[in-house]
Write a structure and sequence with these properties.
This protein is about 50% helix and about 15% strand. The strands form eight sheets. Strands 2-1-3-4-5 form a five-stranded mixed sheet, with helices on both faces. It has 26 helices and 23 strands.
């Protein structure tokens, strides 16, 4: 041991232990014991017990990465601080499976004068020959890992190509005695899976399926793998993520698939190499065998489901607008395509509370940062045109459609009722099983009998609770269709236009009909004209012309004939009299409201129509100021008397001043009233001039 020097023994000896997985720790205990035995070897080489440190926290962790190996990080830090005399490991692969980490450790050991000891001998990384040998060992360790992985993956892939590689099956499938994939023998499980696919065909979204199961109080099974619950079914609430997993799993279409996912290595924000799972597109699947086993749906339906899910996405390329059905009143959501740029038109709800839906193409706004849009128009005009065409297309098949809708409703109700019956049957079986266990127990074994009796009572309570939930559900949902309801559905089918505009028909239902019949609509806009190029689901095309209404401010403009009529009336009538005359004839303004004096005044001002000459004073008429001076009161008091009827007067339109009628008798009466009042301020009473008239 010429390489072992006194300075090495003065430092600590680190015993590093590692196994790649916890299964190896539990099953390959001989390897673990051999690594712990390195402590004796360090003691034999001269290190005292208190100088030997065992690092065993990395047991069960892979050696290909450093991120989670805290003991290896501690080893690197202590070696760089020159506190480690030697590092003991069973072999090079125990320290690291990464060549970069291995050579980094060798450089630090050479820098700090630390030895590396394994079962074969003692090495000094500062020595060229030892460094070369240790480098070869690290390279061979990494190559060994590559060869092991290649052999294992090659064997798995070869077996998968024959469809014989076993893996945990999704719920609804199991293996028979011949290792063949078969449908789950539990009828409740099979029916719940079929109910998911039938519900998705109707609601066309994964979230809608989960909400429908929640509304119907139905649960969905999942099978436990491993542990005490291995192989048991657990019934729980259905979530959107589980629905997506089922819809995207090709096993339910009878296909055997291997290699749907791949692992990619990426650098994290902390600089560590991490593995991320990526879903591969269908052409890149390594193994794909159709009709491998009996499925719940056909392969064509599986592909259609993937297409629907892809269209429902809002974060994918080319799917800026989701085609999933929403609650808004814009019926053509997800169907319109801009004829200028090819982008989908998105609905926008504008106005007070979103009362005015619009269709807009904002690609130019997003790409170029400009404020203008490719096109924008009200949704009601296009919606009404397409709705009229849909009603015309379906008019000839009204009876067949109503009967088909009735059959579909009955099938859905029967499926839901069957799921409830299977659920009750399962709980009833659990109660009978608990009863048999209680009856078969030895009565003298009271401890076991009490426990089994409690389980039996609990099963009976669960059965009663399920039956009560079923009865309550039937009262609320009314799955059975009565004769009157059947006749009403058929009568509604005979009057499709009334059914389409009925308040009971939701916008979401209309959208579903449109998306089933129409593939897309390309829109061209030329001024006030829209050209809708409709592409039906069957492949036929059709063009529909829509004339857009004029702008709102244009609709509020009055015709030249009406303006001329106002001009003639204004020559002899006041604004109030003109408004009264038009209202008596039952005529409305441009905004569909009765005429007022302010409206007539605005029309005259807009078109420069003079009002009649009613401003000239008559005998015994004075202005407010003149009356105030004559009777010795303030102008405010005169206005008050005009409002309360003490004085009479008239006011011409267009802001003319008041013309107050003041006779000599009325003037004396007002002066007398002022002199007797203690609230009205006294002013010097002006002498009435005999000539009268306007001052």
């Amino acid at each position: 041991m010429k390489k072992l020097q006194k300075q090495h023994l003065e430092r600590s000896a680190y015993i590093y232990l590692r196994q790649s997985t916890m299964a190896q720790v539990y099953n390959n205990q001989e390897s673990t014991q051999r690594q712990y035995a390195l402590e004796n070897k360090a003691h034999e080489m001269g290190w005292p017990k208190d100088k030997i440190i065992i690092l065993d926290s990395d047991l069960g962790l892979t050696g290909s990465q450093v991120g989670q190996r805290q003991d290896f990080k501690r080893l690197i830090a202590d070696v760089s601080m020159r506190t480690v005399g030697a590092v003991f490991a069973l072999e090079a692969s125990r320290l690291s499976r990464s060549e970069a980490d291995w050579h980094r450790l060798l450089e630090l050991c050479a820098y700090s004068g630390t030895l590396i000891v394994d079962e074969d001998g003692c090495y000094d990384p500062a020595d060229f020959n030892d460094q070369l040998l240790l480098g070869l060992k690290g390279t061979m360790s990494q190559a060994e890992l590559h060869f092991i992985r290649a052999r294992l993956l090659g064997g798995k892939k070869n077996k998968a190509k024959k469809g014989e590689l076993r893996f945990p099956l999704p719920v609804g499938f199991c293996y028979d005695q011949a290792n063949r994939v078969i449908l789950d023998p539990d009828e409740e499980v099979r029916h719940s899976i079929r109910l998911i696919f039938s519900t998705f065909r109707r609601v066309r979204s994964a979230g809608g399926v989960a909400r429908e199961f929640s509304r119907l109080r139905l649960k969905f099974p999942k099978r436990a793998y491993g542990g005490a619950w291995d192989g048991r079914l657990i019934w729980d609430h259905l979530t959107t993520s589980r629905v997506l997993n089922i819809l995207k799993n090709p096993s339910y279409a009878g296909a055997y698939v291997y290699g749907r996912y791949t692992s990619n290595k990426e650098l994290s924000s902390s600089g560590e190499v991490v593995s991320k799972i990526k879903c591969l597109p269908m052409p890149e699947w390594q193994v794909h065998i159709n009709d491998h086993h009996e499925g719940y749906i056909k392969w064509e339906e599986y592909l259609e489901n993937q297409s629907i899910l892809a269209k429902n996405r809002t974060n994918g390329k080319g799917t800026m607008l989701s085609s999933v059905l929403r609650e808004g009143c814009a019926l053509l959501q997800g169907l319109l395509i801009c004829g200028n740029c090819g982008q989908k038109l998105s609905p926008r709800y504008k106005g007070n509370g979103g009362l005015y839906p619009m269709y807009e193409c904002n690609k130019a706004h997003h790409d170029n940062g400009i404020k203008a849009y490719c096109m924008s128009f009200r949704s009601t005009d296009a919606d009404e045109a397409i709705s009229r065409r849909i009603i015309e297309v379906l008019q000839s098949d009204q009876i067949e459609l109503s009967l088909a809708a009735l059959d579909q409703l009955e099938q859905r109700n029967n499926g839901i009722e069957k799921q409830w019956q299977l659920k009750i049957e399962r709980v009833k079986y659990d109660a009978l099983l608990a009863q048999r266990r209680y009856e078969e127990v030895d009565p003298s074994n009271r401890l076991v009998a009490i426990n089994l009796e409690s389980s039996w009572n609990q099963a009976l309570l669960s059965l009663e609770e399920i039956k009560k939930d079923h009865e309550e559900f039937l009262r609320k949902e009314a799955l059975c269709i009565t004769v009157s309801q059947r006749e009403r559905i058929l009568s509604l089918g005979e009057d499709l236009p009334a059914l389409w505009v009925a308040q009971s028909t939701k916008a979401k239902d209309r959208k579903q009909i449109l998306q089933l019949l129409i593939k897309d609509i390309t829109v061209e806009k030329n001024g006030r004209q829209l050209i809708l190029h409709v592409r039906w689901s069957g492949g036929q095309t059709e063009d529909i012309d829509v004339l857009l209404p004029a702008a709102y401010y244009k609709q509020l403009e009055y015709s030249s004939e009406f303006v001329e009529e106002i001009r003639n009336l204004a020559s002899r009538l006041t604004d109030t009299e003109i408004a009264r005359k038009l209202n008596s004839e039952g005529r409305l303004s441009a905004n569909k409201k009765p005429f007022t004096q302010a409206m007539i005044n605005w029309i005259r001002s807009k078109h420069k129509i003079p009002h009649p000459d009613v401003t000239s004073q008559k005998t015994d008429e004075y202005t407010v100021k003149q009356v105030a001076n004559r009777v010795g009161a303030s102008k405010h008091m005169i206005y008050y008397w005009l409002e309360t009827g003490v004085l009479e007067g008239r006011k011409a339109p267009s802001g003319s001043c008041w013309q107050v009628t003041l006779t000599p008798e009325k003037e004396l009466d007002l002066k007398q009233k002022i002199s007797e009042s203690s609230h009205i301020s006294k002013k010097q009473i002006l002498q009435h001039k005999p000539e009268g008239g306007v001052i």
